[in-house]
Structure formats: structure tokens, C-alpha cells
Specification:
This protein is mostly helical. Helices cover 74% and strands 0% of the residues. It is built from 17 helices and no strands. The protein has helices at residues 5-23, 34-37, 41-52, 54-58, 65-88, 97-104, 113-116, 125-142, 148-168, 174-180, 183-201, 205-229, 232-236, 241-262, 267-286, 290-297, 302-336. Helix 1 (5-23) packs across helix 14 (241-262), helix 5 (65-88) runs antiparallel to helix 17 (302-336) and helix 8 (125-142) packs across helix 11 (183-201). The longest helix is centred in the last third of the chain and has 35 residues, at 302-336.
């Protein structure tokens, strides 16, 4: 799969957004701010995933099911499993075999909100990503050549699920938690990324610029509504706040891909984008562990703790990329090649 520098850069930005959202409490006294709105970086991730897997999703019959499963497993699972153990060993956490197993099997968001967020609040999105991969794997297995109708049907069901959950289920209900944290509600966000892939292929610079402006405006309106109205904005958008945020990020992705496609590529630019993309997964997984560790061993507070936590997060992410994430990804790619039928 070809690496798109623009997507790698945006992936890194999405990870930093989530990190800054969780670190906001270190430097602010207000309940909500624009830093808190950066939690929508998770939705950004979902749209990016839809973009990355668009070629495969649109032509699943060309892929090998086993090879795809192997690549995905070695891409996300080794570092995720290490992160679970890492969090479970933190001084402020408790080693619990049942909770660890639930996380390791991607079942933590099917139990309760407390379990889902017990070790790391960012872990909640991993089951959704895996479910998206399973959907792709199923389409690959069934050798479906035209998936448009299938995806439209599933998206329609997902949108109806969001409306039903928002209007008829109590905010703290178990069923609403499960529906909102899984592909049943989030699939359209991935498919916005798939659509972004199709749109960006035929966009010129002016169209890309207009998409970027529209995306920024939409995100500004949503962010302002979040800061002013808090969680009430979810009801004001009929439960589609996250989807609307994803739509804004879709337009940003289109603009970024189009603009950088026409921009002159440089070695420095490609290097920076590659580094941000490479560190994004580690930043996303480990950032919530750093401030408590800093508080445990040092007396940092406020802006100092904020800056030091960011730097340490990048360092740990870089180390884990070198010693675990990248070697496992390379092994998965190499091992997956065995399952492709040789062409005569």
C-alpha cells in the first residue's frame, strides 16, 4: 500500500489533537475550551482510515483475506498489547486479569463505560477500527466486486441507529454506550474517508482550496457550539455531532491531499510527514500514561508538566516504533506475501 505524505502528516496531526485534548486539564481551569474540542481528532482518525483503505474497500475482490488479516494484526496488535500491559503496571492502576483480557480481546467497550476507560480512555476506538477491518475482510472473503449498494445500505442503517439512540435511549444507558462506541454508529465516518479518496482524485487546486475553507468553517461552528453549549450540542445536532465533525475533516483531507499533490515535494517535507505518521499510533496509545508518571517521580505542574509530557510522549513513541511497532509491521507484511497466489 503506497504511503501518501499528506495522509501521514494528517495522521500525526490527529494524534496530537487527541493528546492535547487529554492534556488540556493540565493548563486550564475552565470546563470546556477549544483544546477539549480536539477530542474530535478521533473522528479525524476514522476518516483517515476510510481514505487509506478506500482502494481495497472499493475493490475487495483483488485482495487476499488471510494476507489482509495478517497485515492488520501485526500492524495494530503487538503495540496495543504492550500498551495494555504498560498501563496495567502504572502505579495508579490495578492489575486486573479480567479487565486486561477484555481489552486484549477488544471487548472493553461492550462491558461498561468504567471498564472501557479504565486503563486508557483512548483505547475505546481500537475495537471500532478492528470492526472496520473485519468488514473489509468480509467483503474480501465474499469477493464482492461492486460494494456501493452494500455500503450505502449499511450506512443507512448506521444513521438510523444514531437517530434512534439519540432520541429514545437514556444518556447513561448501557445500550447507548455499545451502539455509540462501535461500527453500528461510526461506519459513515470511515466511508466519508472513502468518499474523500474518490473526490480528491479529480479535484483541482481551486476546488481543494474551497473544500479546505468549508471544512475549517464547519469545524469552527461545531467547536464554538461545543465550547458554548457543551454536551448539549449533541442533541442540537440530532446526535450527529461526531459525524458532522468527521465531515469537516473529510473536507480538510481532500484539501490537504489536493494541495500537497500539486505542491513541490521536498525531501524534508516527506521526512517530516513520515515521522509524524510513524509516531502517531504510539502517541495515541501512550500519551495518557505520561502525566501521571511525571507526577509520580517529579514535581512538575501546569505548563511545565504540559510541555514535558508532550516531549516524553514523543520520545516513548519513537522508541516503541523502532523496537516493536515497525519490526512487527515489517514482519506482518513479509509473512502476508506467502498467501498471495503467484501469477502465472
Amino acid at each position: 500500500m503506497n504511503v501518501n505524505p499528506a495522509i501521514e502528516l494528517l495522521r500525526g496531526i490527529a494524534a496530537i489533537m487527541v493528546m492535547l485534548c487529554h492534556y488540556a486539564v493540565l493548563i486550564q481551569d475552565v470546563e470546556r475550551s477549544w483544546l477539549n474540542f480536539l477530542f474530535t481528532g478521533v473522528n479525524f482518525f476514522f476518516v483517515i482510515s476510510g481514505f487509506v483503505f478506500a482502494p481495497l474497500l472499493l475493490s475487495p475482490a483483488r485482495e487476499n483475506t488471510t494476507a489482509f488479516a495478517i497485515r492488520r494484526t501485526f500492524r495494530i496488535y503487538p503495540l496495543y498489547l504492550f500498551a495494555i500491559i504498560f498501563y496495567a503496571l502504572l502505579p495508579q492502576k490495578t492489575w486486573d486479569n479480567n479487565i486486561i483480557l477484555q481489552h486484549a480481546l477488544f471487548l472493553h467497550t461492550t462491558v461498561s463505560k468504567e471498564i472501557a476507560f479504565y486503563y486508557n480512555p483512548a483505547f475505546w476506538s481500537l475495537p471500532v477500527e478492528v470492526e472496520f477491518y473485519l468488514l473489509i475482510g468480509l467483503l474480501v472473503f465474499l469477493k464482492i466486486r461492486n460494494v456501493t449498494l452494500v455500503l450505502l445500505f449499511l450506512s443507512g442503517l448506521s444513521l438510523l441507529t444514531v437517530l434512534w439512540a439519540n432520541h429514545f435511549l437514556p444518556e447513561d444507558s448501557y445500550l447507548k454506550l455499545v451502539l455509540s462506541c462501535h461500527l453500528s454508529s461510526i461506519l459513515p465516518e470511515f466511508l466519508l474517508g472513502t468518499l474523500a479518496y474518490l473526490v480528491s482524485k479529480n479535484c483541482d487546486q481551486l476546488q481543494g482550496f474551497l473544500y479546505g475553507i468549508a471544512g475549517l468553517l464547519l469545524l469552527f461552528v461545531l467547536g464554538h457550539g461545543f465550547v458554548v453549549h457543551g454536551n448539549a450540542i449533541v442533541g442540537m445536532t440530532f446526535g450527529f455531532f461526531n459525524l458532522l465533525s468527521a465531515l469537516g475533516y473529510q473536507w480538510i483531507i481532500i484539501a490537504g491531499v489536493v494541495f500537497l499533490r500539486h505542491a513541490q515535494s521536498t525531501t524534508v517535507w516527506i521526512l517530516v510527514a513520515g515521522i509524524m505518521g510513524n509516531l502517531s499510533y504510539g502517541v495515541y496509545l501512550f500519551h495518557n500514561a505520561i502525566p501521571p508518571l511525571m507526577n509520580k517521580f517529579f514535581e512538575f505542574t501546569g505548563i511545565t508538566l504540559f510541555i514535558v509530557s508532550i516531549l516524553i510522549t514523543f520520545v516513548i513513541s519513537a522508541i516503541m516504533y523502532q523496537i516493536l511497532e515497525n519490526p512487527m509491521r515489517k514482519f506482518g507484511r513479509c509473512y502476508a506475501k506467502r498467501f498471495y497466489q503467484s501469477k502465472s
